[in-house]
Amino acid sequence: MPGKPRLTYLNGRGRMEPVRWLLAAAGVEFEEVFLETKEQYDKLIKDGLLLFQQVPLVEIDGMKMVQTRAILSYIAGKYNLYGKDLKERALIDMYVEGISDLMQMILMFPFSPPDAKEKNLDSIKEKALNRYFPVFEKVLKQHGQDFLVGNKFSWADVQLIEAILAVEEKIPAVLSSFPQLQAFKTKMSNMPTIKKFLQPGSPRKPPPDDHYVETVLKVFKK
Fold first, then answer.
1. Which is an annotated GO molecular function term of this record (predicted)?
2. Domains in the chain, ordered, with CATH?
């Protein structure tokens, strides 16, 4: 029997958090190795474990996978979360890419200079309210189904619930004008695997704090 997937990253969200979300949503247990020093990171590179000298690193099915998008698409395909045909996969890819654009802004927010934080938060709010969330509100309303693609739970749904919760941490009332997304959030949060991941003590990481930012800058310093 193959071992659990092994995730190597920092003890924080970053680019590994969507991987944790997707594995958890698929009901897959995993192990984690946390980088805390630049020496640990340099050793991974020296040992040839990081193809492009970047984490996240996920060891799964005998592979040492890097590049977040490749890792996520492999997991989605392996656990039947990637649609039933090429057209559904294309839709999932489009939705995932759009959500990733929004999540990139959230990912970088903790590293904003103090004098730019308010402006960057306003930008996240504006993009969520006017560019990204309206798309998914419209999709759910038009097809009247529980999930984004093919009326079946997929990678796109996992990415969207992660994004909704991440934005709500910063802007609590962000869904007030999106009734479809409110219902989607409730439904997703009550799915057994996701509900378990949202409980205290799960592998889900808390919002980035100053210690996380300091660790990132220390581990990846040039």
1. glutathione transferase activity
2. 6-79+198-210 (3.40.30.10), 86-191 (1.20.1050.10)
Task: Output Rg (C-alpha) for the chain, integer angstroms.
Answer: 18
Q: Using alpha carbons, select from 147, 131, 144, 149 the residue that is nearest to residue 94.
A: 149
Task: Provide the token pair at 105.
Answer: 């802004």
Residue at 56: amino acid letter: P
Q: What spatial distance separates the first Cα and last Cα of the chain, rounded to whole Å?
A: 40
* Residue type, position 88, single letter: E
pLDDT at 2: 66
**Cα distance between residue 203 and residue 17, in whole Å:** 9
The pTM (predicted TM-score) of the whole model is 0.94
